[in-house]
Structure formats: C-alpha cells, structure tokens
Amino acid sequence: MSRKQIVTVAVIILLLLGGAAYYLTSRAPSDAVAPAADGFLAPDRISPADKAMGNPGAPITMIEYFAQICSVCARFDQEVFPLLKAKYIDTGKVRYVMRIYPIRPLDQPSYRLDLCVPPDHFFQSVDLLFRNQPLWDAEEYPVSDPHGELIKMARIMGLTPEQAEACMNSTAQDAAINQAAQEATARYNIEGTPTFVIDFKKVDMGQKTWDEVQRALDAALAAKGVK
User: What is the domain extent for residue 65?
Assistant: First the structure.
C-alpha cells in the first residue's frame, strides 16, 4: 500500500471512530470552512483560532500540516524550524501556522495534551513531544507504556495526572478536527506529513531541508517584491 493510500485509509478510520483525529487549536466547528452548495470548498483562510506565530501582517503565510507522532516532523522541528524562525518569522516576513493532520491512533492523546496547555505554550508543547518521541511514541519506537509516558510528558507541561487524563479522554474537538482533515485532503491533496503550504499553495520540498525551505520562501517573497 502506498503512503498516500495509508494516509487516506487512516483519515477514514479516524472519521469513523470519531476520536482519532484532532485539531491544532480550540477552533469550534462553526469556524471550519464548509463545502459550498456546489461541492466546492471555499478558499482557505487563517482564522483567529489557528495556532500561529509571527507577524499577522507578514507578506507570506506558511502552513505546516503535521502529525505529533511523525518522526520526519520531529526532525524538521529540531533541525530546520529554529533557522526558519530566526530568518523569516522573527523578522516579520512569514506568519507560521501549524495544523494537525492525524495519521495514527497515538496522534489522539498526544495532540490533546497540546490543546490542554495555555495557548501561549502550545508550540512549546508540540516541540516537547517531538523531542521526546522515543519515550512515548509506540508507533515508531519500542515503547511499552505510551499512555504512562504521555502522563510524564504532561507533568513537564505543567499538567497534573488528573488533568492529563481528562485531556486525553476529551472528544470535544473531534468533529472539528475530522472536518479539517477532510478539507485539508480536498484542498491540498496531502500525501503525508509534514506537508507545507505557502500562501495557500502546496509546495513540494522533497526532503524538507533548510535549503529547500529557503528557496521556497525566497521565491514567494520575491514574487511579492520583498527581499
């Protein structure tokens, strides 16, 4: 089975189970972009509920569709994102948005923990889980007790075990996340994570290296007359 087929099947399963997909933010279902009557999706947009960093008026918007258990996403987070942030986000050239695109069951409890920390700690939580994947990600590493390890991660985030349990068992955002995953597939034909979208157009970055990111962003900035 191809990677695209695996991801598509996973999304369908998550939708049927009504709980294995999550949303990157506390967005309410009413904020999601619904298909128009003719079957076409309305243009994508960044809502106030999206998890974003950087200048809201930046000339370029970059969206990362990620899965919390994705090891390629974790590598990008550690090796490439700090450089991207320093050169483009912190300088006001890029507004960066992270949206969940669930691919495996463990995305559910791990991402729910991200949603339970204070909003201004969201990105730190995502980063913490990425950096510690070998401790809790039983999908890709030899972990015997992923639930217990996620409770430990929650403690580092400032959550009590009781709060962590409540977060990981909550289904409050499932409907919105399921719809968002469907729309992401329809709009951008996502085949895996991470997938990057620059100014609402999917960009193929191959290995997601720093050089590829720079080329893509510099081309988008040049097209708008920004150096």
Answer: 3-24+50-78+95-223
pLDDT digits (tens, 9 = 90+) for 121-171: 999 999 999 999 999 999 999 999 999 999 999 999 999 999 999 999 999
Query: How far is the C-alpha of 48 from the C-alpha of 124, rounded, in Å?
Result: 19
Q: How many CB atoms lie within 10 A of CB 191?
A: 16
Place of tokens 């087929």: 5
Distance CA 31, CA 15 (A): 19
CATH of the domain at 184: 3.40.30.10
Question: What's the number of domains the chain is made of?
Answer: 1
Distance of CA 117 to the CA centre of its chain: 16
CA–CA distance, 72 with 2 (Å, rounded to integer) = 17
CB 69 within 8 A of CB 106: yes
Report the predicted TM-score, pTM, of the whole model to 2 decimal places: 0.82
Closest CA to 56 of 94, 20, 26, 107: 94
Three-state SS at 94: strand
Distance CA 18, CA 93 (A): 38
Contact predicate 16/26, CB 8 Å: no
